[in-house]
Amino acid sequence: MAAKGGCGTSALSHDLHALGYTDVTSIDFSPVCIAAMRARHARCAGLRWAVMDMRALRFPDASFDVVLEKGALDSLLTEERDPWRVSAQGAAALRQVLTEVSRVLRPGGRFVSISFAQPHFRKPHYAQDAFGWSLRHAPYGDAFHYFVYVMRKGERLASPDRALGRRLHQPPPAPDAPRLLLDPDDEDFLLAIEL
Ligand SMILES: C[S@@+](CC[C@H](N)C(=O)[O-])C[C@H]1O[C@@H](n2cnc3c(N)ncnc32)[C@H](O)[C@@H]1O
Known about the structure:
The chain has 195 residues and is of the alpha/beta class.
């Protein structure tokens, strides 16, 4: 049984069904999207649709083998100004969803997250012991990469990932701390590159 969060009007749920995943529940908090998808796939009994907020899933604990999201977590961070310093609100929204995903996954189940967010920005959020999963990722695409993150419930995080996750809880640098050691308009640093 698989769940797809923030499905929008993407063809992915139907594609998964065509690939043999015959029990797929897709959610979005937009009633318009869900009504459109329900009508579009009315003949496909294995696809279920629900209006639901991914921060508060109305599913029992340990009820899914796979949870998949594509671009839905990214949509929680559209107001962020600096990917290096995600705001407390942005981090809390991600954490809410990830806590819910971890709760509804069966032991051994997988959470698959597909995003344009690069690993140094996204992995610290996923690499938290509280979620009780391991983490791996792979780039996908030829020129403009996106990233597939796979978390497996019941496995431990690797030490480097755990260390990354700890960084999220460190206090941010003081606002007046120098952020750029180089003048951004000064290209002298190019002279230091040894070929
Ligand atoms: C960038 S779109 C991605 C849609 C689809 N997954 C795709 O790949 O085309 C983000 C989707 O997440 C939904 N969304 C945003 N916040 C949500 C929330 N808190 N709960 C459920 N859905 C949410 C939006 O309505 C939108 O359909």
